[in-house]
Amino acid sequence: METENAYKRKKQPELVRRALLDQAARITLEQGLSKVTFQAVADAVGVTKGGVMHHFTTKNALVMEVFHDAMKKFESEVDAAMAKDVVSYGAFTRAYINATISLGEKGQQEFNSQATLYVLMLGDRELRKLWAEWSNAQLKKHAATDNTETLCMVRLVADGIWLSDFSGINISDKKSIRERLIKTTYPEND
Q1: Mind giving me the DSSP string for 39-58?
Q2: What span, in angstroms and rounded, lies between the C-alpha atoms of 127 and 113?
Q3: Structural domain count, the chain
Q4: Residue 5 lies in a domain
Q5: Which is nearest to 54 in space by CA: 22, 87, 11?
Q6: Fewer Cβ within 10 Å of end Cβ, the chain: N or C?
Q7: Average pLDDT score over residue span 130-158
Q8: Which tens digit of pLDDT belongs to each residue from 67-113?
Q9: Quick one: 121 and 39 in the same domain?
Q10: Given this model, what pLDDT does residue 164 score?
């Protein structure tokens, strides 16, 4: 019986690429961006360093792709929540709150993707600029429904709650706070 090895298996570049992104995101969260190296990602996925370099020519290219992947997931979550919302006023802000404040009901992968986005954005000026561009485009796109001082404050509070979670600061009743923020986003409460 012949032992199957990586060279004889059917190549599945999209699955490998996905695994590389997922492991780079995991390493970023668990150990910090400085620990994301081609070798660390290769070891985590079970491929060679050259296998990582086949998909990403530089560490920056890998980090950028992890960021863009997390952005797509975050934006998809926001868009899906908005599509289900029957009240247009404040819909973006409600979706943003729900995508930002985790109560543990989300799968770990979704939370990791969102957390990875923030960790990368907080640690890199270029990524902060991309985050600001996305945020500003969303605010412009939803100006008719979400451009009030109150809704702005609510989004900033949601960001603060996320940062508290990330930093390990305990919030006694996060669910109640989130519900109160959501309630504030309806027109009769603004």
Answers
A1: HHHHHHHTS-HHHHHHH-SS
A2: 15
A3: 2
A4: no
A5: 11
A6: N
A7: 95
A8: 999 899 889 999 999 999 999 999 999 999 998 887 665 444 444 56
A9: no
A10: 85
